[in-house]
Design brief:
Elements lengths: L1 H52 L6 H12 L6 H7 L22 H12 L6 H15 L5 E4 L6 E5 L6 H11 L6 E5 L10 H14 L4 E3 L7 H7 L1 H8 L4 H12 L5 E4 L3 E3 L10 H6 L13 H14 L9 H10 L14 H22 L12 H7 L9 H13 L1 E2 L5 E3 L7 E3 L1 H10 L4 E4 L8 E4 L4 E4 L13 E6 L5 E6 L10 H29 L1 H11 L6 E3 H12 L5 H8 L7 E3 H13 L6 H21 L6 E3 H15 L5 H11 L6 E3 H14 L1
Parallel strand pairs: 1-5, 2-3, 3-4, 6-10, 7-9, 10-12
Antiparallel strand pairs: 2-13, 5-6, 8-9, 11-12, 13-14, 15-16, 17-18
Helix pairs in contact: 1-18, 4-7, 5-7, 5-10, 9-10, 12-13, 18-22, 18-23, 19-20, 23-26, 24-25
């Protein structure tokens, strides 16, 4: 009996170990593909940024288009934004049966919203805009770093990424209770994108923020950025739900996002930030930055920065000749110092007074441009502007330095090795080691950091000797069953208590035996989904893989050793996956250890063609570039109408042709755009945009 028990125990342990290994491999696949996608987004954005920095507009119309392409949120002054997003002129029809909001908000309003969203009801656009207006007004008065104390409530609950998963937010409130004077919450960014109910999540969080401004705190995440929203679904979601007023709602949300606080400090001992830190993180600088300047953190505005540096050299008394010649040319063309007109005679006091006022006003405007204060920013005093005014004698940071501070805290990840290196996997922020964590904690007298930004299988994870805690609240993030969500509760002793969950109705009603079978089936389902995504990735790089395989096939036999297959695949995809371990799931085994790579790739093509009936080589390119194409389409479609006007296409093509040195007349561009408009309705929709791409590829 004892031997039998030991035998069963060994069998069971091996079985569990194999399941765990499958789960970890699946996890690596999902995470690698996700980070590769983020890299693509930043590369695409950097490409457009490069075009903008090296494109000289030839007319005011082109200048307007360029300024709108990435900084559309800055093109509105305070009064203009409120006029554009005027909710008071909107009428709510009598037939509307959804929740109604009146301000100031009360707890009953929040309860009504929760019930309405459970019933799949939609909040009227008037109330959405009104809520965003009030939220923006409140956020503008908040500091960059919020301060929370456990003295005033029993505990503080910190939640990580929600990513538009409303069921997870409902589950958190069900388990932990709604926000109240005795129940404080910190939501640590990434409220939107990927999930299908991002707007509902945002509405609920903003509602509770206004009802309990001292108990509910929101940090900005890297997805609270309109450029990221273009790729990951939030922009599309808003336009689908609010076809008439969607553009106004998006414009207002853009502006609200840039006013979100950057961090939260609990009892002066626990720092809560979305991504992480770097070896240059400076909390004193973060407290004084005008955070609303950074509508999109992806773009650092290098062009303006170089101009500003040149002019700061002039102020400091450095020789203009010694400064960089190119920078001076840009500075003189973009922001020349005004030369005062000839002063009138002192005898005419009225004329002289006018001259003084005009000259002073010109100098003030020049100084505003010099320090990069956008005219669109509010003239009313905000918390950050008051901090800046009270510290005029303090250090002067460049915009690039400020931008890097924000980029690092929103995009960085911890690593087990010492030091601080560029985050090449995501394409933004940095990797910081335990030594960097230790220095920051010691410098600011902190106990530990709480961050989010990374999906964890159990919903949370400690690293750096338990000095860094990652908390992630979106369960089933990659696939149903892929991960748990979690939140953490901190009392006055600041000892973290975790609550894990999975928003899955099926698992709650199962017996113990059924749960074991459900676990195996769930891992199999998640694993299948991961390998399907990986096969799509392999198929999308067919041409590059053939070239890599041929490097090992010197005799052109069409066959390579299975041992070389893994090396060749990694050299093309750069996903950092354990390809030798994954090989049995992707490649058929053979007795001689050789792979006929062309027939293997043909099988991949057949699998994808069964889903979309397109020529194989063309489908490969579509798979590889569809996300980029959709993002480019949404960048050109500045009014988010789902259509590119001829004017939008015309200006974008001028940008591309200037970069690629292609001479094309206005008539030539008009002929091009008319040829893409297949249904001749005067606009280009995404299907026409994609179809034009297919036709070009076919002709090649």
């Amino acid at each position: 009996a004892f031997k039998a028990a030991v035998l069963i125990q060994r069998w069971y342990r091996r079985y569990v170990a194999r399941l765990e290994m499958r789960r970890r491999c699946t996890w690596r696949i999902f995470q690698s593909i996700e980070y590769a996608c983020e890299q693509d987004q930043i590369k695409l954005h950097n490409f457009f940024s490069y075009l903008m920095d090296h494109f000289t507009p030839s007319s005011s119309k082109e200048r307007d288009f360029i300024s709108r392409m990435f900084v559309s949120g800055e093109s509105f002054k305070e009064a203009e934004l409120e006029k554009y997003c005027d909710y008071e002129s909107m009428e709510v029809p009598d037939s509307y049966t959804g929740p109604r909001l009146s301000f100031p908000l009360l707890p009953d309003h929040a309860t009504a919203l929760l019930e309405a969203f459970k019933q799949k009801q939609q909040l009227h656009a008037r109330y959405v805009l009104n809520l965003l207006h009030e939220t923006r007004k409140h956020l503008k008065q908040l500091p960059n770093i919020s301060h929370v104390s456990t003295c005033y409530s029993e505990e503080v609950t910190v939640c990580g990424d929600l990513h538009g998963q409303l069921d997870d937010l409902f589950l958190i409130f069900y388990k932990n209770g709604l926000p109240s004077p005795s129940k404080s919450y910190v939501f640590n960014g990434d409220f939107v994108d990927r999930g299908k109910q991002s707007l509902e999540v945002l509405i609920i969080l903003f509602t509770f923020l206004l009802i309990y401004p001292k108990e509910v705190h929101l940090n900005r995440g890297n997805h609270e950025d309109h450029m990221v929203n273009l790729r990951y679904g939030f922009t599309k979601e808003v336009m689908q739900k609010y076809k008439v007023h969607g553009k106004k709602i998006l414009k207002m949300i853009q502006n609200v996002f840039c006013w979100l606080p950057l961090a939260t400090l609990i009892d002066q001992k626990v720092l809560v930030i979305h991504g992480g830190i770097s070896d240059t993180t400076d909390l004193d600088m973060l407290e004084k930055i005008q955070r609303n300047k950074f509508i999109s953190v992806l773009r650092g505005k290098k062009r303006k920065e170089s101009n500003r540096n040149v002019e700061i050299q002039e102020i400091n008394g450095e020789s203009q000749v010694e400064a960089d010649a190119a920078g001076n040319e840009a500075a003189s063309s973009l922001c020349p110092q005004p030369r005062p007109a000839q002063a009138p005679s002192m005898a005419n006091r009225l004329e002289f007074s006018r001259w003084v006022r005009q000259t002073v006003q010109e100098q003030i405007e020049w100084c505003r441009r010099l320090v990069d204060i956008s005219e669109s920013e509010s003239e009313e005093l905000t918390y950050s502007s008051m901090v800046s005014l009270t510290d005029l004698d303090g250090p002067c940071w460049t915009r690039q330095e400020e931008w890097k501070q924000i980029l690092d805290i929103l995009w960085s990840d911890p690593m087990p090795q010492e030091g601080c290196t560029a985050n090449t996997v995501r394409g933004g922020g940095c990797y910081f080691g335990p030594d960097v964590t230790g220095k920051i904690l010691e410098k600011y007298n902190l106990q530990f950091l709480i961050r989010s930004h990374e999906c964890k299988q159990e919903g949370y994870e400690f690293c750096h000797n338990r000095k860094v805690l990652t908390i992630f609240s979106a369960s089933n993030y990659y696939e149903i069953g892929s991960n748990r969500g979690a939140y953490v509760k901190l009392g006055p002793d600041l000892v973290p208590h975790f609550v894990q969950y999975q928003a899955n109705k099926t698992a709650h009603t199962l017996t113990m035996t059924q749960r074991q079978g459900f676990l195996v089936a769930r891992i199999s389902r998640v694993e299948e989904s991961a390998f399907r995504a990986l096969r799509e990735k392999l198929f999308a790089h067919t041409s590059a893989l053939i070239s890599a395989f041929k490097a090992y096939d010197k005799d052109n036999t069409g066959r390579i050793a299975l041992s070389n297959w893994a090396t060749a695949v990694e050299s093309v995809l750069h996903l950092g996956l354990p390809w030798r371990m994954l090989r049995p799931q992707l490649v058929p085994s053979t007795a001689d250890g050789m792979l006929e790579y062309k027939s293997w790739l043909d099988d991949l093509a057949m699998e994808q063609r069964s889903q979309e009936h397109i020529q194989s080589s063309l489908l490969e390119v579509i798979y590889r570039n569809r996300s980029n194409l959709e993002t480019i389409f949404r960048i050109i479609d500045r009014d988010h109408s789902g259509l590119i006007s001829f004017e939008e296409f015309h200006q974008t093509w001028k940008l591309f042709s200037a970069h690629m040195n292609i001479e094309l007349t206005d008539d030539g561009i008009n002929d091009l755009v008319r040829s893409i408009d297949f249904n001749k309705d005067g606009n280009i929709d995404f299907n026409e945009f994609l179809e034009a791409f297919r036709l070009v590829k076919q002709s090649q």
